Amino acid sequence: MPPRVPRAAGQQLAETHQPTRRQRRYPSDVTDAQWALLDPLLPDPAWLAGRGGRQEKHCRRVIVDAIVYLVDNGIKWRALPADFPPWPTVYKRFAIWEKAGATQRILDGLRDRARLAGGRAAAPSAAVIDSQSVRAAATVGRATRGWDAGKKVNGRKRPIVVDTVGFLLAVLVTPASIQDRVAARALLLRLRTTVGDRLRLVWADGGYTGTLVDWARRTLGVVVAIVKRPDLPRFTVLPRRWVVERTLSWIVGHRRCVRDYERLPHHHEAMVRWAMIRITSRRLTQTL
User: Fold this and answer.
1) Stretch 164-184: mean pLDDT
2) Is residue 123 pLDDT above 60, yes or no?
3) How far is residue 142 from each of residues 77, 112, 158, 263, 285, measured CA to CA in Å?
4) Which helix (H) or strand (E) holds 174?
5) What is the pTM of this model?
6) Alpha helices per DSSP H over the chain
7) pLDDT band at residue 214, thresholds of 50, 70 and 90?
8) Rounded distance, CA 136 to CA 242, Å?
9) What are phi and psi of 220, to 5 degrees?
10) What average pLDDT does range 273-286 have in this prediction?
11) What percentage of the chain has pLDDT greater than the value 90?
12) pLDDT on residue 11
């Protein structure tokens, strides 16, 4: 990650990126308190870091507002309201930030801060894993979609790992035909690069039984504990698993994540991360 720019350059950035005057604000727009958290975590423009390029025309806060508006309301890129920057500008910035890994770093920074504020260590020692199959729109190509026979869903599957509070640690998007225990290997490897080697325990449901348990213990030193559903004729809250189920419901509360519209799987991962960035930043600023 490139070093942060000196204060003088940061002041220059603030002076040249005045917020665009808009006639109205939307419920999805970030507050001043949220922006104070997000701004230092965003990557600096190339021209400001001395890597060339021209100065950006639009304020980064307005770009973030536009992205969050799209994630929250589930609209098309071309349907962004006219008081936002042009949609190609917003999409290009969205794609550049995702390619640079910015969304994961923003989410990591917010999550670590939220955990510390709750009296926990920044890096979790335990997590919960689960997946959710979502229908894919016509924009999703055949090569990256599949049929989930169990859920009767033609689309993609998004396995996620959360900490014991429910904050997102990692997300992966695969064809819906991929079994949970197969996708979990790639997700747990990704998780190691996100939270380090402090993680020692992962709770999961019965779909993660089999060779995954031995592989995780042998390769990563992580114990995968299976939380089995009790044989009861009524609904019951399952220990630990309810945490990840709640996070999945938070994500689905953002309309762009109800169905997968993205041509590229990692762009849908970005949509999920932006949804959790919004939730985590609101939690930190006590606006939930």
Assistant:
1) 96
2) yes
3) 22, 37, 17, 10, 41
4) strand 174-175
5) 0.89
6) 7-16, 32-38, 60-73, 87-99, 102-117, 180-195, 211-219, 241-252, 265-284
7) very high
8) 25
9) -110, -10
10) 95
11) 76
12) 46
CA distance 246 to 240: 11
Residue 237 pLDDT exceeds 80: no
**Of 281, 276, 38, nearest in space to 167 by CA:** 276
Name the helix (H) or strand (E) containing 203.
strand 201-204
Q: Using pLDDT thresholds of 50, 70 and 90, give the confidence band for residue 34.
A: very high
CA distance 233 to 169: 33
- Whether 38 contacts 274, CB under 8 Å: no
Cα 282 to Cα 288: distance, rounded to the nearest angstrom: 6
DSSP state of 136: B
**Tokens 């997000």 correspond to what residue?**
38
DSSP result, 28-71: TSPPHHHHHHHGGGSPPPTTTTTS--PPPSS-HHHHHHHHHHHH
pLDDT tier for residue 48 given thresholds of 50, 70 and 90: confident
Q: How is domain 124-262 classified at the architecture level of CATH?
A: 2-Layer Sandwich (3.30)
- What pLDDT does 247 receive? 97
Strands 126-135 and 146-148: unpaired
On the question of pLDDT at 13 being above 60, the answer is: no
Task: State which amino acid sits at residue 183.
Answer: A
What's residue 10's pLDDT?
A: 46
216 within 8 A of 223, measured Cβ to Cβ: yes
| Residue 113: both structure tokens together | 């801060």
> Among 245, 257, 52, which residue's Cα sits nearest to residue 173?
257
First to last CA, the chain: 31
Burial label, 180 (beta-carbon count in 10 A; 0-12, 13-18, 19+): buried
Rounded to 5°, the CA angle 163-168-169 comes to: 70
Cα 120 off chain centre by = 21
Read off φ and ψ for residue 264, nearest 5 degrees. -105, 130
